[in-house]
Amino acid sequence: MNRRFVAAQTSIALIVALFAARWQVAARSQGGVPEAKVDALFARWNAQTTPGCAVGASVGAKIVLAKAYGMADLEHDVRNTPDTIFEAGSVSKQFTAAAVLLLAREGKLSLDDPARKYIPELPEYPSPLLVRQMLQHTSGLRDWGNVAGIAGWPRTSRVHTHAHVLDIVRRQRALNFEPGTDWSYSNTGYNLAAIIVSRVSGEPFAEFTKKRIFQPLGMTRTSWRDDYTRIVKHRAIAYADTRETYRMEMPFENVHGNGGLLTTVGDLLRWNENFVEPKVGDADFLREQQRPGRFKNGQQHDYGLGLYIRTYKGLREVGHSGSTAGYRAYLVRYPDQRVSVAVLCNVTTGTAERFAHDVADLYLAGNLKPAAASAVARLSAAELDARVGLYRSLKTGEPMTISRDADANQLRADANQILTALSPSRFRMGTGDSILEVQTRPDGTVSGARVVRPNGTSEEFDRVVTAQPTPHQLQELAGVYASDDAETTFTVAVSGGSLQLKRRPDTTLTLRPLYTDAFSTSSLGTIRFHRDRQGRVIELSVIMDRVWDMRFRREAETTTSQ
């Protein structure tokens, strides 16, 4: 290699490193927070043998923190810096919503237009779904990634494009729910929104957002992963943490708008500052994007246009998390204090949301309000045991298991959420604001439960008995099941005394009994079989978090065990 070229490259690298170092020094001197406190939060990732994170914070209009930890590229020993480019996952959604909103402010579309006006590929459902509902996750659209996963092609396993998204969407004969009546997070709406921006503006979505959002705000390091093969200088490689080692886990797909924003912590802080001193949009634009949505019945939920509008330790909070492949991200703003924090990580165990809140706590000290103490009820062992059991969602059919942690004398929901008793019938779920209400019969026995969530939705559960199907009952369920929506076929058969589901080319899943005719799987969520009035099995449905009831018709029967 030419020595003069190498020397020039080395000089450029030194200049970049010096600039980054000066930026960090300046940031440290303005924030009033000791650098050691921030370093302690990221201590696990402050090594040359791990991936890591970048963190930025602003107070007022000034960036007061810009630091990075760990490695951007473990193969080539490249460190993360504040200018390293990460992928922001669903933090990206607010930029897609902003692009749609810019067109709406110009009168080129309306948020309350039917989506089919711009996406005629959508099936014509009984109740039209609106552009606004797509952006607020109240459209009922199934998440295309989950549908692709049901078919055997989960995200990052093939190069999905927007053409794939449209192809999947046009086949969905059903929605999760009537548009505007419920809430279910769906990337589909945001991929369609990116397509709408392109069709209405007449230029590629990436180009529109570059000219209308990124360039005016000086977000010079921000772009979209609309071509995953494109070389992006200073991009961090994403990794999966397997506990034993790190493995690359990159998002090899071209879909974007739902995610796919390539950016830095500094650029994200510049975007957040636009909500205070706007260069993109006007006051009405800013209010519209940050206004919590409403269901058809008028009930308010906590999602605006690509933003969660919530409360954190007594303070107003506007933000969003992100997760794609091995990347993790969180961008948050506290409007009344004019404090913003951005965290971007390139490892699956990089807890960006927790880090962002921990950093925010340092800069919000003195403003945070302790949560009002709730009286904790003490239940007897008999009362706790009476609530243990299997519960079935009346909305989706998904199970919820309540178990008792005997050592701590407490209940858990699905093993990972501690249930804190507020009364014999009310429990706080985990550390959030969701409440589980236990329902009882006149004789005091538990009949079901209701989960009330802070986003304005609720879910009813009935208590069911764990099934123990006989070999004959399992054999009744065997057969071939096909779905046009997923464009795939399942073969269900009895093998070794258990029910197994097979999918081409080489997937075999064991179905573990839940309640009558319902089974859990390791990767397909809940499988539930449906019968006609004569008791004959005619369908099965796949039930997942973002696909509530995808039906597979029974094509043929098998009568032999394997």
General description of the model:
Mean pLDDT is 92; it is low at 1-29 and 558-562. The chain contains 13 helices and 29 strands. β25 (507-513) and β26 (518-520) form a beta hairpin. Strands 14-15-16-17-18-19-20-21 form an 8-stranded antiparallel β-barrel. The chain has 562 residues and is of the alpha+beta class. The N and C termini lie far apart (63 Å). It folds into 3 domains: 89-363, 3-Layer(aba) Sandwich (Beta-lactamase); 381-464, Lipocalin (Beta Barrel); 471-557, Lipocalin (Beta Barrel), CATH 2.40.128. The chain is globular, with a radius of gyration of 25 Å. α6 crosses α7 (188-201).
Observed structural traits:
alpha+beta; Beta-lactamase; Lipocalin; 3 domains; eight-stranded antiparallel β-barrel
Helices and strands in order:
Elements: H1 3-31, H2 35-41, E1 53-59, E2 62-69, E3 71-73, E4 78-79, E5 86-87, H3 93-105, H4 131-135, H5 144-150, H6 162-170, H7 188-201, H8 205-214, E6 223-224, E7 239-241, E8 246-248, E9 261-263, H9 265-273, H10 283-289, E10 308-312, E11 315-324, E12 327-334, E13 339-345, H11 352-363, H12 381-387, E14 389-393, E15 399-405, E16 410-413, E17 417-421, E18 426-429, E19 435-440, E20 446-452, E21 458-464, H13 471-477, E22 479-483, E23 488-495, E24 498-503, E25 507-513, E26 518-520, E27 526-531, E28 537-543, E29 550-557
Antiparallel strand pairs: 1-2, 1-13, 3-4, 5-9, 6-9, 7-8, 10-11, 11-12, 12-13, 14-15, 14-21, 15-16, 16-17, 17-18, 18-19, 19-20, 20-21, 22-23, 22-29, 23-24, 24-25, 25-26, 26-27, 27-28, 28-29
Helix pairs in contact: 3-7, 3-8, 6-7
